[in-house]
Amino acid sequence: MNQTIKKDFLWIYRAMKTSRYFEEKMEKAYLEGKQPVFNIGAGPVLGEMHLSNGQEPAAASMIVHLTKNDTVTATHRPHHQAIAKGVDLKKMAAEIYGKKTGLSKGKGGHMHLFDPNVKFSCGGIVAAGMPHAVGAALANKKRENDWVAVAFIGDGAANTGAFHESLNLAALWKLPFIVVVEDNSWGISVAKKDSTSVPYNDVRAKAYGIKGYLVKDNDPIEMYKVSKEAVERARRGEGPSIIEIETYRFLGHFQGDPELYRNKGEAPSLREKDPIKRLKQYLLKEKLATESEIKSIDEEVYKKVDTAYEFAIHSEYPEPTEALEDVFC
Amino acid sequence: METTKQKIKKLTGSKAMIQALEQEMNRDSNIFIMGEDVGKYGGIFGSTTGLYDKFGPERVMDTPISETGFIGAAIGAAAEGLRPVVELMFVDFHGVVMDQIYNHMAKIHYMSGGSVKLPIVLLTAVGGGYSDAAQHSQTLYASFGHLPGLKVVAPTFPSDIKGMLISAIRDENPVIFMFHKTLQGLGWMDQLEASLGPVPEEAYTIPLNKAKVVREGTDVTIVGVQMMTVEALKAAEQLSKQGVEAEVIDLRSIKPIDKETILNSIAKTNRLVVVDEDYFSYGITAEISAIVASEGFHHLKAPVVRLAVPDVPIPYSRVLEKHVIPSSQNIMDAVESLLSS
């Protein structure tokens, strides 16, 4: 048991660290060509950029329980989920750089990452991935396998019709479906308390007769335990669950967000509770890992991410006329 | 424009919108705004900046991401006599709420035999050109223009933005008011001359059914809307250096469309290029070509040229996006080949 825990927690640590380092590099890469005057359309990395720094436990501590056969649908803030699901990091970086070697040959960009090899997709419309995950879960049930489908959404998405319709379907058909609500307290500038009629979305499970879980304070270990139970229940055919995790958005909604709507002290105080540091301390305290083991994971992560960025930066752009391809099969 | 002797200031598209909303809200207490991030944030594309502080949360309401809910609620509130101005951030996001828009907002006046009025303004940001990819870069002018019962406007310049927004608010019908992100004059996007222009300080109206000749010419007519008007003007300047005088029409109104201005222009120029940031098939270029084929065919010396996004979703990568959105260069090339044919 201890060996499994050790293996899983180190996996979670590695996934979170990879996402964090990938995004810290992205934060810098995104600003290239956008200084001194910020222009969203300038530089090598373009368009809106939604980073997930701080939200890593929501993805890593759930996806550790999944295999390649399980489906994940994700959000407009998708890097931590994609990385944990094992999306090809080189191709993902290249996609974000708009290169021919990217996952979608430069057509998708950071909000539209698709890697069917690991059953990962995401999109730019709030809650839209939820019914897709319901459909994947329906396919699993029809085929009588024990695969599950997990939809990641933000807390703002829990107020859409798609959220409620998806839950009703998943409950009605008793599907192997889980929705992870990443509650980062904000829907762009609107605080959760000003948008959501209940303090926590786990209670909404009651309305659909399904299981609801709440993970407080961005805790990667609690998220691990709760997700394990939800995934095992889903695999056993015991139906869907909602897991809401209180998580942290260290950065703005998108890069360039002036964040005038939130207290200046909020992000720094969240950073003090950095979940990656907390997990590291836990691993050391519980003697699940040594400093040198962690250091070697860190070094592997840096190398892997650096290699992915090198690949992206040195890849070719598509030919302009490739824009006309792929509309139909 | 009902201009008398009054103060005129240079404003951005965004500031022109805000001024229109503020003046109208001061005039009529039935007007209120709701939408995502329209309150403290002031609208993601600067449509409501400062209004939350001036009018408070009762009249500038931040909503949850419950589009069917709040846009549907605008219909109910309008039927009760209020005058809601609702914003849905990106036009691309309307997919989730189209039932409320095309089955209800657009049809209730008709279905009720004219007994129910819905004076709603639906604000939404349109357009690409900054690599925001397929779900955040569309214009969808034609998708809305296709539906009976909706007025659809898409002004380009700050003075038109203000005057048409005031008209939209005062109109008794639902009006889809599309503003182009790049023409808002926002500090974090491309800075365009067109996004800053003289705007009279007092409230004034501009009709919702009139196109505008923004450059006179004799050799060819170019019809555009929003960024395509800007590109057309750029092309016209270059063409002028080669001795070709293009007349540029800023459509401004998608529905109803101003046939007269277009037909009068081609009666003079005998040649037409229509340029659109929306998709090619069944779009503005098709509509205008059909109007001209039916009602102005005898004026034409050459076939109409249509430039639009070639029936592909808007791609992310800059090189790909540039390939599909028409540019001033594409327009110049089209005019040159049209004149040599």
From TrEMBL, chain A:
Residues 47-320 form the Dehydrogenase E1 component domain. Gene3D superfamilies: 3.40.50.970. The keyword Oxidoreductase applies. Its cofactor is thiamine diphosphate. Keywords: Oxidoreductase, Pyruvate, Thiamine pyrophosphate. SUPFAM superfamilies: Thiamin diphosphate-binding fold (THDP-binding). InterPro entries: DH_E1, PDH_E1_Alpha_Subunit, THDP-binding. GO terms for biological process: pyruvate decarboxylation to acetyl-CoA. GO terms for molecular function: pyruvate dehydrogenase (acetyl-transferring) activity. PANTHER family: PYRUVATE DEHYDROGENASE E1 COMPONENT SUBUNIT ALPHA (PTHR11516:SF60), PYRUVATE DEHYDROGENASE E1 COMPONENT, ALPHA SUBUNIT BACTERIAL AND ORGANELLAR (PTHR11516). This is Pyruvate dehydrogenase E1 component alpha subunit.
TrEMBL record, chain B:
InterPro entries: THDP-binding, Transketo_C/PFOR_II, Transketolase-like_Pyr-bd, Transketolase_C. It comes from the Bacteria. GO terms for molecular function: oxidoreductase activity. The keyword DNA-binding does not apply. Gene3D superfamilies: 3.40.50.920, 3.40.50.970. Pfam families: Transket_pyr, Transketolase_C. CDD domains: TPP_PYR_E1-PDHc-beta_like (cd07036). Residues 11-186 form the Transketolase-like pyrimidine-binding domain. Its cofactor is thiamine diphosphate. Keywords: Oxidoreductase, Pyruvate, Thiamine pyrophosphate. PANTHER family: PYRUVATE DEHYDROGENASE E1 COMPONENT BETA SUBUNIT, PYRUVATE DEHYDROGENASE E1 COMPONENT SUBUNIT BETA. This is Pyruvate dehydrogenase E1 component beta subunit.
